Hints:
It is a single chain. The chain is an all-alpha fold. The chain contains 17 helices and two strands. It has a two-stranded antiparallel ribbon with strand order 1-2. Strand 1 and strand 2 form a beta hairpin. Helix 2 packs parallel to helix 4, helix 3 packs antiparallel against helix 9 and helix 11 crosses helix 17. The longest helix is centred in the middle third of the chain and has 34 residues. The radius of gyration is 26 Å and the shape is elongated.
Amino acid sequence: xxxxxxxxxxxxxxxxxxxxxxxxxxxxxxxxxxxxxxxxxxxxxxxxxxxxxxxxxxxxxxxxxxxxxxxxxxxxxxxxxxxxxxxxxxxxxxxxxxxxxxxxxxxxxxxxxxxxxxxxxxxxxxxxxxxxxxxxxxxxxxxxxxxxxxxxxxxxxxxxxxxxxxxxxxxxxxxxxxxxxxxxxxxxxxxxxxxxxxxxxxxxxxxxxxxxxxxxxxxxxxxxxxxxxxxxxxxxxxxxxxxxxxxxxxxxxxxxxxxxxxxxxxxxxxxxxxxxxxxxxxxxxxxxxxxxxxxxxxxxxxxxxxxxxxxxxxxxxxxxxxxxxxxxxxxxxxxxxxxxxxxxxxxxxxxxxxxxxxxxxxxxxxxxxxxxxxxxxxxxxxxxxxxxxxxxxxxxxxxxxxx
Length: 403
């Protein structure tokens, strides 16, 4: 199945679930309206405070925790609840849609995929939990068995959410599904575990003390969300600082305008194709941005900044100078290592250094070759895979350029 068809299928399944749930809720009526309103407001607040940006695993953790908590709600202040999975889907959908209105008005992309992911994940949890609770299974089992059953349900729900997060990303970008899913699974150890734990604890607390438990147990996650906003702002500033440092060679006339930015973008795409994880891609991007910074130490600039045609010894000298400069900036030491080793024999290089070397050479050759330059540059790289460039990187570069 093609990626666009897969996206349509996921959205279609979510829409079908919503329509069926709305019809069932309208037929049977809304049970425990106070609880439905309280959880709806919590999900609405989570969606209104939703953030956006790169490397975001869960855009609305408070909304996700509130939706999961409602799906796992069996009692309220000691009294059995009678809402079913259809009411859970209806309330979560209505609150999520209302909370998404400001984001849609601002033109924020990905809202439909976000809503589909939320509906399908909550539906999975509610369909698994509510029938079991209705049959009295949770009340009959002992405390340890009940905890194990709830833990198993949370794990399955988290896995379902990870798959539903990776599929739209794969369809949108065309990047390999395996690495994207691995990143989502790695993210479960962070914000994912916090969401699952908060959702389960809120449901258990509401069962004992009532709806007053919601603001108490949602406050830590809300504070975490606000703290993450500040962290994201710091990361954005850090990225902008590195980009400014990378432009130093362009401002000084050592490299053509936009060269570092083009190498970084293409290197990141190749890294994605080769299955690098999020942190590895960040290191690769920063190293690609700063790969030419060693040229600032040269007395006589290299013509057009084209280091790929220099003798191997001169390339290594410039790379080592660049690594020394990077270390002085306080950037992660892994970035400096990639910059230093970009001119080593490729069999001795780490994968990020292989990527930077091949992409930089391609960009320089394609830029200077005139019409038909990209094809000619790629062919030159393929002919040099015996000694200069890693074959798997060159083939990955060819796949990225085809797409």
